[in-house]
Amino acid sequence: TDDWAHSGGTIGFISIEGEGIVGAYSVSDKIRDEAKEVVASLKAIGIDITMITGDQRRAAVAIGSQLGLEEHDIRSEMLPEDKLEEIRTKVQENAINKKWWTAKKAVMMVGDGVNDAPALALADVSVAMGEGAALAMDTADVTLMDSDLNKLLYIVRMGKKVSRTIIENIAFSLITKVIVMGFTVAGRVSLWAAIATDVGAMLIVTINGMKLLPSSRK
């Protein structure tokens, strides 16, 4: 049984009334092929990852180590209310530590079971797996219909790219307006030149936003 537990299995026993325990078995979740790579990529872009599971401690650590997680990043033997409290604590910590000059940190919960639904509802951003329970999908903000974790990495990267593009466009537009306004007040630019500059800035902002469109390249 120690070998089963260390391999990531959850151990169960079979008994017959009057005879006692007559057998034992071990079941474990299959790690998705892309899971380890996705975890490494998310950590590489500065995202802290915590594994929350109801599995026994040894099984949870065995699975987490295969994903590249440290033991202190693994929460095991957690009931639905424990998962809910874990997410609540992280959300509250972010709210308390938020400074006006720093970017807001968000808590994202990824789950697929009925037991995950309360925590999914409380997280800032919740993601459900398409092969999971219907309640989890109904509760989550986003559902990965094919349960491909690479899509999770894609939406995180896309979100960062969208935010960066919005900041670029706003900054460029404001700087352009200020420059044109300065030249206009100084009498150095005509009305038509100001209009042309405004239209040009609009086109540049639009083209910059078009880089967010999906590419046909694989």
Structure description:
Helix content is 51%, strand content 14%. It is of the alpha/beta class. The protein has a 3-stranded parallel beta sheet. Strands 1-2 form a two-stranded antiparallel ribbon. The longest helix is centred in the C-terminal third of the chain and has 37 residues, at 149-185. It is elongated and about 100 Å long. The model has no long low-confidence stretch (mean pLDDT 87).
Short description:
With 218 residues, the protein is of the alpha/beta class. The chain has 8 helices and 7 strands; from the N terminus they run αββαβαβαβαβαβαα. It is elongated and about 100 Å long.
Helix and strand pattern: HEEHEHEHEHEHEHH
| Backbone structural class | alpha/beta
Straight-line N-to-C gap: 45 Å
**Total of DSSP H or I helical runs spanning 4+ residues:** 8
What would the principal axes of the Cα set say about the shape? elongated
Low-confidence spans: none
Q: Average pLDDT value?
A: 87
Search tags:
218 residues, alpha/beta, 3-stranded parallel beta sheet, two-stranded antiparallel ribbon
Helix and strand layout, with pairings?
Layout: H1 2-6, E1 10-16, E2 20-27, H2 35-44, E3 51-52, H3 57-66, E4 74-75, H4 80-97, E5 108-111, H5 117-122, E6 125-129, H6 134-139, E7 142-144, H7 149-185, H8 191-209
Parallel strand pairs: 3-4, 5-6, 6-7
Antiparallel strand pairs: 1-2
Helix pairs in contact: 2-7, 7-8
